[in-house]
């Protein structure tokens, strides 16, 4: 009777564990669509360990039930309690059914674990990609703000250059006009000054010519007189030579 009570308590624990596992599987199926955390994957491992322990604890009951169905001795496996009362076969069948259910549940859990591991890796990759996309969006916003700032600065610089170019054009035009006025004024002044200088030179030349002309007339007269005297002196000298040398003419 003590062994039967022990088997019944193990069956109840196995049923409770199965119910807990089913609840956890339902919760995992609900969380499968969302982000699966690492702690939930650890929970699946814990569930697998619990099922393995329960399966190992109930396999010996399954083996003994099989041996009993083949005519084996239950006493050799210790299947009698202190009162030498055999265990009910329906209990053994129930235990075998529970063991098979636990085994099938273990296989289902292994498959679900593989699926969850694949989904977890995919979700981790998707989370990493989403974080990278967010970081790239933030960088893109920063770069777009910088580009807008540079565009505004370029527009301001272009406007400043246009204003400076206009100011330089006005200054060049003003300087050219001043140079033209100064040049025209200086040319007229030079012409007037050259005309005045030319008149002064001509007047001085006229004065000198008027003062030189009578002197030249006087000198011309003296030259004519000296020429006459020279001719007369020559005649006299020729006469004297003829007389001296008695030359007949």
Automatic annotation (TrEMBL):
InterPro entries: NSP1/NUP62 (IPR026010). GO terms for biological process: protein import into nucleus; RNA export from nucleus. It comes from the Eukaryota. GO terms for molecular function: phospholipid binding; structural constituent of nuclear pore. GO terms for cellular component: nuclear pore central transport channel. PANTHER family: NUCLEAR PORE GLYCOPROTEIN P62, NUCLEAR PORE GLYCOPROTEIN P62-RELATED. This is Uncharacterized protein.
